[in-house]
Amino acid sequence: MSEQTLNFEHILDLFESVINSSTEPNIEEKSQRFTDGLIGLAPGKSLTDQPLTRSTWSALNRIASRIPRKHYGQDVLVSTVRKLNGAEGWKGLPNIWIEMRGSWNPSPTCDPEAKDEREYTEEEWLNLNSFAARLYGRLGVGSFISFAVYQISDGLEGERETNDRPGPETRIQVACEWVVQSGRRLMRESLLNTFADPLEKLESRYSNPYSIGPLFTGSRGFSPERWGFWKRRLIELREDESYSESTYESIDEAVDAMTRIEKEIADRLCTE
């Protein structure tokens, strides 16, 4: 099949036909149909084929940015990636991080009428992060850990800069979405102190993707201390009366998720 047929519009049409095939969510059924359709676009090829790699992951990222974070279509996409990972020739999802990293380069804009495909609206940025967080949280795409810590730090560890884009409310909602969708993996990394610096290396804590924001005084990487800071910060932000209802809803969901995960661990310790 020619490279021309592996473009975004072709894959988008396939996804829309699957979503609109019935009024019921039917996530497993629809994701299987979408998976079969994607594989059928280039029979005999695998993700080692560069055009197919770029077309597939780039298209899924762009589709995800257009799906509201609470719409079941996000789950269809995640289930599709899971099924692709189990399909012959697609195992390991090679280059998925590279394509997601490429999707991180476009700058969010607050202009809802933006026509430049290299930019996201702030809502699209939130939707894309929801997809990435689901892939990390549910499928364990380990390379996405850098996206997680960076976005949470950006939303919860920095000062409120109203002129920055994305704006402060979007940054908070993005951070909350990572907590809600991948909280268990974040807790695991926190308990393991993943990427955390020893005390003697604190002077380098601002120099890499696992750096900390100015409001957090601990070491970089993951730690129970940092997890606790995130939760306290969310509670503080909840008391700020200047945010929108959707931001408060995101904060509540994130705090509830963190509390639930903490309780699960505590209960498990008591039963072992």
Q: State Rg.
A: 19 Å
| Integer tally of domains | 2
Q: List the total number of helices.
A: 10
Spans of at least 5 consecutive residues whose pLDDT stays below 50 are 1-5, 199-207
What is the succession of H and E elements? Answer: HHHHHEEHHHHH
* Mean pLDDT score: 87
The level of helicity is 55-70%
Distance between the termini: 56 Å
Percentage of residues in strands: under 5%
SSE arrangement:
Layout: H1 8-19, H2 27-41, H3 50-66, H4 72-85, H5 96-104, E1 108-109, E2 120-121, H6 122-139, H7 145-156, H8 168-191, H9 224-238, H10 245-271
Helix pairs in contact: 1-2, 1-3, 2-4, 3-5, 3-6, 4-6, 6-8, 7-8, 8-9, 8-10, 9-10
List keywords for this structure.
272 residues; mainly alpha; disordered N terminus
Provide an overview of this structure.
By secondary structure, the chain is mainly α. The protein folds into two domains: 1-105, no CATH class; 127-272, no CATH class. The protein is 60% helix and 1% strand. The protein has ten helices and two strands. The protein has helices spanning 8-19, 27-41, 50-66, 72-85, 96-104, 122-139, 145-156, 168-191, 224-238, 245-271, and strands at 108-109, 120-121. The protein has a two-stranded parallel ribbon. It is globular, with a radius of gyration of 19 Å. The termini are far apart. Residues 1-5 and 199-207 have low confidence and may be disordered.
Offer a quick outline of the entry:
Helices cover 60% and strands 1% of the residues. The protein has 272 residues and is mostly helical.
